[in-house]
Amino acid sequence: MFSRSRIVTTTGRSTLGQPGPPSRLPTEIWLGGIGAIAVCLGGFSVADIPRNHPGLQRVGLDAITYGHGKTLGAIVFWLGVAAMVFAWMRVGRRLCTPVAGEPRPSLTTLRWTVIGWAAPLCVTVPLFSRDVYAYLGQGVVFAAGFDPYADGPAHHPGPVLDSMAQVWASTTAPYGPMFMAITRGVVAVSGEHVLTGVWLMRVALLPGLLLSLWAIPRLATHFGASPEVGVWLALLNPMVVIHVVGGPHVELLMMGMLAAGLALTVAGRHLSGLAVLGLAVSIKVTAGVAIPFVVWIWLSHIRSERKVTRADVARVFAVVIVVPVAVFAAWTAALGLGLGWLTGLGWADQIINWFTLPTAVAHLVTLVAAPFTSLNLWPVLTVTRAIGAVSLAIILVALWWRHRADERSAVAGLAWAMLAVLLLEPSTLPWYYTWVLVISVAFTLPDWVRAVVVGVSTFMVIVFQPDDSIVFYKLPEAALAAAVSLLAAISLLRPDPLRLGAVARRLWGAEADRPQGCET
How many Cα atoms within 13 Å fall on the side-chain side of residue 141? Predict the structure, then answer.
């Protein structure tokens, strides 16, 4: 799928057609922006508001956090989410299946649209997750003289600890030294003022969004894909904007470093690319999956100029190891906490959801066995996760070796490798999908794959609730989310799949002389 070189077309038109002439912004871009503002405002009612913190009371917003005020805020919030998803789908249809008379948004327009949609979400309270409070908690512990790789946020009680998910109160930090330095710097400015810390953390992570806006079009152009479609699929995506920016999450910075390092590498700037990838690993170790694939990209570049020698292979392998390790070691030395982050990696096992195969299989085993015997989930989960870990290690090595032919194959292999990590690691959360998105958009994906991305992204925005609760174990809510997500996916490929527009036109007597291709 990722390694196809030909351009996928739809209804005889290339998906890489040129943007139309300059004109006013499409209505859906404005609609998405209004939706983002609604999400921002509604978030103060229904999202992850700091606990035991008087910030909202001081500005007179406490009335919208309970009772009818909260109900009204919830309506505003979910109408905003719906507007963003609908607008995103419509922009995608303009790009992927253009209609005569509807100009495709330019790359510049899409870049500014991403920034415009993200801007309101930079000033709201944390959305869909309390992870940012955990980041601040680790920074507060560090500032208080503790080692966040050995001591959890519970060592320093206060408003930050009160606001974070208590399951992480006693856990140690799993993040790299660069990110821990960032959290320490944020707390040095914000102290224990929780909302100030949240806003400053977003500011510290936003360079990742800017790097992605720079790198993704370059990756797509390098491999002959549409940079506009790449920005739309990976960055304008409501799942990314709401979860990763509105969260916020460390993936925002990591995905920018990952995409930028890869873009530099395929452009022939191997040392710079490796250094940036080293920074990505210093933020979150998952980015290290990309580094071995740089070997094949670099050797492919040498092969395009001359015959590769054994000395070339040895030199490339050595540099690919030394540069990221040197960057990581420099940050580790500067932070002065050693490699304690290794002990924190296992805490993610406490997250249980069926978005990974090991957890899904464990649930299935206990469900099938229920009529015959009583099986506790944890023992089964231990086995399935162990099998998943071994399978993942084998798959990663196999993908690395199989995709050694050229740079295109290597980047495709990396995309598959990140997807394997998502599916086989102990737990997966919506913002983890950015690992795959920022790489896969380098290629011209088939229409059905884009539709799957739209469906999965919509589902992830619905089943994770703005107050950090989850509904994917509640059958009615999960079924409704699946139905809405399926509708969004089909709508990308076929306008007005429910024929609501046709019904409305019949009711209003406006069916005659309707131009083809103008359904909503």
Answer: 25
